[in-house]
Amino acid sequence: MTHKGTVTLETERLILRRFSPDDADAMFRNWASDPEVTKFLMWSAHTDVNESRRIATLWSEQYSSLNIYQWAIVPKSVGEPIGSISVVHGDDKAKSVHIGYCIGKAWWGNGYTPEALTRLVRFFFEEVGVNRIESRHDPRNPNSGKVMQKAGMRYEGVLRQSDWNNQGICDAAYYAILAEDYFTPKTQDKPAGYIQQIRAKIGHDPIIMTGSAVFVYRVGKILLQRRADNGNWSKPGGAMELGESLEDTARRELFEESGLTANSLELLGMTSGAEETHVYPNGDKVFNVTAHYLCTDFTGEPCENDNETTQTVWFDVDNLPEPVSETFRRHYENLFLPRVKNL
């Protein structure tokens, strides 16, 4: 690693630069005084602008050290800081950095944070020479995980009750990207790489697809998601990736699609055979071999955590919404209902 310090970086919409004491008013007004911004952070909302001034001054005094990385996020259209992004921990021996960030609520959903993080990923790999860039978030704050995903980071798992923030002791969902991931041509590094590579060779021809699905249950309720491709209601699930176990797949798919972290999973059964044939709207044909799990112990708040679903809703177990596929109904009646009747 060759440390460069907090150099000014630029993107299409942002300037990432050093803080100065003059930024105190903007820091206090735009994000640091808002308890909603600091809800899942390790520092409390500032109650006085002098607190923001003290922090901005402290940061500005540290910039003489080349291993200090603390940027103000400044949209070109705004002209003043609306948040910060920094290295909160670095390990030169491991050649790794851990990134943290926050941004004012008025600018949530505008894509500024993933844009800033993506620029830092490029900077640390191409200029500093790190091997690993990581970040983490409280699973109850799934939108932070989306930022990491958009910057190319991969979900690695959850360390249970390993962290703390303003809500108390919490789980920590980790994402990371390695130098070998970054420098591999993007066409060889897609989120659903295995299936996509197979499809690139055989087109829409039938394949056997092994995967996992999760019934999420909470006191008489089942969690269902409405699929973006066909409008049907179904449960979280998807195809196995290389190197995964079936349970690994279930945990990953549950988190990626709903934002929930499974604390425990119970295998309900396996399904396969001709009746498990499925044709996707794009013409891809699969013969599914699926492990079905029940999850009653989970962490987080359900949400639409990727672009495959449009709604996430709790329903009474005896009042399924429409439409659902006949395949889902069969799994629901044969695997799920018999088990939850005993809960």
Q: In words, what does this structure look like?
A:
The protein is α+β, with helices and mostly antiparallel strands and 343 residues long. It has 2 domains: 9-186, 3-Layer(aba) Sandwich (Aminopeptidase), CATH 3.40.630; 202-340, Nucleoside Triphosphate Pyrophosphohydrolase, CATH 3.90.79.10. It has helices at 24-32, 35-38, 49-62, 112-128, 142-150, 179-183, 193-202, 246-258, 326-340, and strands at residues 9-10, 14-17, 70-75, 83-91, 96-103, 132-137, 154-165, 168-178, 207-218, 221-227, 233-234, 237-239, 261-271, 277-279, 285-299, 309-316. Strands 1-2-3-4-5-6-8-7 form an 8-stranded mixed sheet, with helices on both faces. Strands 9, 10, 11, 12, 13, 14, 15 and 16 form an 8-stranded mixed sheet that branches. Strand 10 and strand 11 (233-234) form a beta hairpin. The longest helix is centred in the middle third of the chain and has 17 residues, at 112-128. The protein starts with 8 loop residues before the first strand and ends with a helix. The model is unreliable at 185-192 (pLDDT under 50).
